[in-house]
């Protein structure tokens, strides 16, 4: 009895090996990328030639049960609606006019829904849900570190000085002064801009020790890294050395972002005040980060807002390609290229800008290469007549609502 069972197992194993070697096999793994050229290399014992003798034509069923088919090739370019629980049947005729057998695969291209299923009735019965194998997010952005902000520097006007100092103030050059700025990682030296943004700005000091001292100042600025929060001003002397201005270090420049150079007790000193315009607190221009480039598809709305201070505005160089609102929200309108610019404007009109190159493309397929059959063997012809193999397959809506689909042509992979 045991010997009979052992013999039966051996016989069944031989039959299984024979079936695997002689029948068409199917695979639902993702299709490998298409290689350029006339042939595609396969691993294993596939029948592969250059594919020049293979053609395929697809027909749609004229009866709901798929028993009869049209004689006109089906046009996949249009949008088709499949009602709830309805099935659309197709027949793809694959013709080999060459003498050599070949292994082919058929794929649907460019599905735009995941509410449908694709199945095969012949040569074998298979069934699979439409699923997107595309990892495209449809929006990509490359962030960049702008890391710039302005600090205002006010020089007391000559009218606010005693007579013996007026001449020195009138000959003052703002570009001779520098801000030494630092944070936990390092220090940077930056020169004060050599021109004034605004003249005769009145400040009444609030700093302890100088409270209620009122004077007018000509306002310039200095650009330092956005993430630096400590500054101290100095002047370069004739031999290139640093003459540090009287006064303490400013360790909170984000709050006290105006450095005032003024005269007190027969000395020129620096003090730090909050920027005020018409009595209201204000900021200088500054941009911490933005994007250097971005890509999106038509119809997408996405965020390109910058981390910035001051009054922040956005513009698009080509509004027919993409528009952007005051909060940095972009709408991609048509394929093309545009430049999105963010501008930070400070309390005294100073500006810092950054640009992002945006490329808008047509929307890609949400899914590509849905397999119908894979690695199907097509025999070569033995006489003058080509070998024709028919694949009967269908698209089914197995949901409770209608679903529209648009498909590319049936693709042949060799």
UniProtKB/TrEMBL annotation:
Q: Which Pfam families match?
A: Big_2
What InterPro entries would the database entry show? Answer: Big_2 (IPR003343), Invasin/intimin_cell_adhesion (IPR008964)
Q: Which domain of life is it from?
A: Bacteria
Q: Locate the BIG2 domain: which residues? A: 305-345
User: This protein is called what?
Assistant: Bacterial Ig-like domain (Group 2)
Q: Which organism is it from?
A: Ruminococcus bromii
**Lineage of the source organism?**
Bacteria, Bacillati, Bacillota, Clostridia, Eubacteriales
């Amino acid at each position: 009895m045991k010997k009979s069972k052992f013999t039966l197992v051996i016989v069944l194993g031989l039959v299984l090996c024979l079936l695997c070697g002689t029948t068409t096999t199917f695979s639902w793994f993702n299709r490998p990328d298409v290689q350029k050229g006339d042939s595609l290399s396969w691993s294993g014992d596939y029948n592969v030639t250059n594919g020049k003798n293979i053609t395929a034509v697809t027909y749609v069923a004229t009866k709901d049960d798929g028993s009869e088919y049209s004689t006109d090739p089906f046009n996949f370019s249009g949008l088709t609606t499949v009602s709830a629980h309805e099935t659309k049947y197709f027949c793809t005729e694959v013709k080999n006019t060459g003498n050599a057998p070949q292994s082919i695969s058929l794929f649907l291209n460019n599905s735009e829904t995941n509410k449908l299923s694709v199945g095969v009735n012949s040569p074998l019965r298979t069934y699979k849900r439409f699923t997107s194998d595309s990892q495209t997010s449809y929006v990509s952005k490359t962030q960049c570190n702008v890391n710039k902000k302005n600090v205002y520097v006010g020089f007391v006007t000559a009218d606010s000085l005693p007579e013996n100092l007026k001449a020195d103030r009138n000959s003052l050059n703002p570009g001779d002064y520098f801000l030494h700025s630092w944070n936990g990682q390092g220090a940077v030296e930056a020169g004060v801009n050599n021109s004034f943004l605004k003249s005769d700005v009145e400040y009444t000091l609030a700093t302890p020790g100088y409270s209620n001292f009122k004077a007018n100042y000509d306002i310039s600025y200095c650009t330092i890294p956005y993430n630096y929060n400590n500054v101290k001003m100095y002047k370069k002397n004739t031999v290139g050395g640093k003459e540090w201005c009287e006064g303490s270090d400013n360790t909170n420049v984000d709050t006290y972002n105006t450095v005032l150079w003024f005269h007190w007790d027969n000395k020129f000193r620096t003090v730090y005040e909050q920027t005020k315009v018409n009595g209201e607190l204000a900021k200088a221009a500054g941009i911490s980060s933005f994007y250097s480039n971005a890509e999106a598809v038509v119809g997408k709305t996405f965020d390109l807002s910058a981390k910035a201070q001051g009054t922040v505005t956005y513009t698009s160089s080509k509004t027919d390609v993409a528009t952007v609102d005051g909060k940095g929200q972009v709408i991609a309108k048509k394929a093309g290229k545009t430049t999105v610019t963010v501008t930070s404007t400070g309390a005294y009109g100073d500006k810092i800008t950054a640009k992002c190159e945006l490329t808008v493309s047509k929307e890609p397929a949400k899914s590509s290469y849905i397999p119908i059959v894979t690695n199907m063997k097509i025999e070569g012809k033995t006489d003058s007549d080509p070998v024709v193999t028919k694949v009967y397959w269908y698209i089914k809506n197995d949901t409770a609502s209608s679903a529209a689909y648009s498909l590319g042509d049936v693709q042949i992979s060799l």
